[in-house]
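pasting for ref
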Amino acid sequence: MDSSKLDKIISLCKRRGFVYPGSEIYGGFAGTYDWGPLGTELRGNVVKEWTEAMEDHENMAFLDSSIFTAAKVWEASGHISGFSDPMVVCNHCHTKFRADHLLDVIGVVADEKMTEKQINAIFDESRDKLHCPVCGKKNFGKVAAKSLLATSNLGRFEDEDQEVYLRGETAQGIFINYKNVLSLGWYSIPFGIAQVGKAFRNEISPRQFLFRKREFEQMEMQYFVSPKKAPAAYEDWKKERMTYYDRLGVKKEKLRWKQHENLVFYAKDAWDIQYEYPFGWNELEGVHYRGDYDLSQHQKFSGVDMAYYDEETKERYIPHVIETSVGVDRTILMLLADAYDEDEMNGEKRVILRFKANMAPIKAAVFPLLKNKPDLVKKAREVYGLVKKEIRPIVFDDNGNIGKRYRRQDEIGTPYCVTVDFDTLQDDTVTLRDRDTGKQERVKIGEVASVIRKAIEK
C-alpha cells in the first residue's frame, strides 16, 4: 500500500488538468469530480478501446438507455429491497460512516453480502476497538442499512406520486430492452448488448479518489446465451476480459483474479479482475454468470414473455446472462497509477506518466526552439498543422524554456515532442524526442506523423 503515491496522483491530476474536484469554488461536493481537458481525452481513449473490443464480436449490439426508468424496474431487479450499505453514525460528532470500512481499519472483515443483523453482531463485538476517524471517540450508534439508490423529484407534483430513481447500474436498461433488440431480426442467441453510461450511488463515504464515487460511468456488456452453453461461454469471456488489458498497456503483475466467496442468491459464479491500486488490491472489473434471474424477474413483474425459441435446437428457454462490468473511472485511476513514475534525467528529477501511446491523452507536442524568433515560430506552426492533419490530439507549446516544456509533457504522458530549430529552416528536419528514454533523433517533417502513428498502433 502506497498512500503517498495516491496523493501525488491526485495533485498531478488537479495541476495538469486531468481531474478537478466537483463544485470546487463552492467548497467542493463529496464523491463528485469534473474531468478536465486531459481527463476528457483520457476518458475518450478508455471508452474507445472498450467499445472496439466489444465491436470485435460479430453478434454485439450497442445501446444507450435512459438514466430515469419506471420504479418497477428497480423493484423487479431487487435494488429497492436489497441494494444497501451498512451505515453507522458517531454519536459524538454525528459523522456517518460505512460500518464495514471502520471494521476494515482494525483488520476485521465484514463481507458485503452479510445481512444487517450479521454486520451488527460483528460491529458490536468490536466496539471497544473502534475509534471515530473524525473525533476519535468510541461512541457509535447501531448499524443500519442505507439504500444506495439515488432518488429524484422528477415529475413529483403530488404527495402520492412514486419516487423516481437515478439508475444504480446500466445493466437494467439492457435487460428491459433485450426483446426490442432481438426484434430487429438480425440478432440471435448467443448475442451481447453493450453500453457505456452514467450510474449513481448514494454512497455513505465516497473515498479513494476516483475509485468510489457517487456519480460514475460504467462500461457493461450482457451476453445472452442458452443455459447449456453458458458455462463454456463464461470461461471464454473470462479469458478475453483479462487479455483485454494488454490493449491498455497495463502491467500484468498488477492484475489478478478473485472469486466471490459468498455469491448473491441468483449468481451461478462470479469473479473479479482486481488491480493493485496504491491503496491495495481491489475490484476493477466484474465478470459474472448471472443465470436467468434478471430476465425472469422482469418477466414476472412486467408480464412480458422473455423466453426465446431456439430454431437450431427447437427449444424454448429464458436465456442465461454473462456480464462484464468495468468502471470508466476505476480504469482511469488504474491507468494513472500504472503509468506514474519518478526518475532522473540529465541530472534532474522528473515525474512521468508512462502511458502506452494509444492511451496517452496528448499524442505529440510541437515546439519552436525559441518563442522570440518569428521564423522558428512560423515554421513550428506549419509543422503543427501538417502533423495535426494525421495525428490527434496534439498541442503547440512555446511556454517556457525547452527543458520545462519537456518536463511538462513528460508529466502528462505525451509520447513524443517535436522541436523546430534553426536546422529545420535549412533542411526540413525536426528533433523528435521519445518520452520514456529522452532519446532524440532528426526526422524529416513529412515522416513525423508516420513515426507517431506506428507507436500508437503497436
